[in-house]
Every structure is written in C-alpha cells, then in structure tokens.
Amino acid sequence: MNNETVGAAAKRAEDDMLRSYRLWFEHARKCAVGCKRVVRAQDGCEDGRELWGVYRLARIGRTS
Predict the structure, then answer these.
(1) What is the C-alpha separation between 43 and 5, in angstroms, rounded?
(2) pTM of this prediction?
C-alpha cells in the first residue's frame, strides 16, 4: 500500500465516522421517545442505540 491509498482510506473512514455521529446526534436532539433524557447513548431508544452502534463501527473502521 502506498501513502495515497492509506490516506484515502483514512479520509473515507473519517467521513463515515463523522456522518454517523451527526445522524445519531440529530436523532438524539429530536427524539421524543427518550434519547434526549439519557446520559449514555446505550440507554436511548432502539433507533438511537442502532445509530450509536453504526457510529461505533465506523469509528473503528468497520462498516455495518
């Protein structure tokens, strides 16, 4: 692997991570079921927990 390939992979992973975090954050802000009132993302509604799981996978470089 050359440096360009590694850099492109790192940028793509970062973009996926930031996107998934933004989707979770937007959901948590608007969630009427309970994501607004929880301290940990794992304690939110089912959709919020799923979005958080996607973010965690993107953070370590895996896709869902």
Answers:
(1) 38
(2) 0.71
- Classified as helix, coil or strand, 62 is coil
Tokens for 57, please give them. 């996978």
Secondary structure string (H, E, C) spanning the chain: CCHHHHHHHHHHHHHHHHHHHHHHHHHHHHCCCCHHHCCCHHHCCHHHHHHHHHHHHHHCCCCC
Q: Tell me the mean pLDDT in the region 26-48.
A: 87
Provide the pLDDT for residue 27. Answer: 93
At residue 35, the pLDDT reads 84
**8-state DSSP, 1:** -
